[in-house]
Design a protein that fits this description.
single chain, START-like_dom_sf
């Protein structure tokens, strides 16, 4: 029963967030978007990697980005003030990145690309993808706030947190 309630809470949270973004875009189109709410205007997602530009081979990308194959464009250039290298990626076909319904269903290619870029950055810099320790085990009382928090925790990897 708890997983059913968690699933319902997760869907409600996603729907609520999408509704708020839709209303905000109608009321004030120039309002700043929260991170991950929609695609950037250019579609490029960029991270600064603490490596020299010559250390990043676009022909042999780390597995998280290589899994996208020819569906992405990759750009590498020096970061500002010589502080590493900018690794930028974007989907070639941004029209197929889906809308509200695909995001509610957990199938958002832009979010998946953002997560893959973060994991690739970690692989390039450290050699492994670092993970946060899981939540402590035990039984917690199911409260509305707790269910909402659990739902957002399950969705968090799609926002590029892992």
């Amino acid at each position: 029963m708890t997983s059913f309630v968690g699933t319902v809470a997760s869907l409600a949270a996603r729907a609520g967030g999408s509704a708020v973004r839709q209303v905000r875009s109608v009321v004030d189109p120039s309002a700043a978007r929260p991170a991950g709410a929609s695609q950037p205007a250019s579609g490029w997602l960029v991270v600064t990697v603490l490596r020299e530009q010559s250390d990043i081979d676009t022909a042999r990308l780390p597995a998280p980005l290589a899994d996208f194959g020819g569906r992405i464009e990759v750009r590498v250039r020096p970061a500002a003030d010589g502080k590493g290298t900018e690794l930028a990626v974007r989907l070639r076909d941004r029209r197929s990145s889906g809308g509200v319904l695909s995001r509610l269903g957990g199938r958002d290619p832009q979010a998946e690309l953002r997560s893959a870029l973060r994991r690739a950055k970690q692989l390039i810099e450290v050699g492994e993808v670092l993970a946060v320790d899981p939540a402590p085990h035990g039984k917690r009382t199911a409260t509305p706030g707790g269910m909402l928090l659990e739902a957002w925790t399950k969705v968090a990897p799609k926002a590029g947190v892992r």
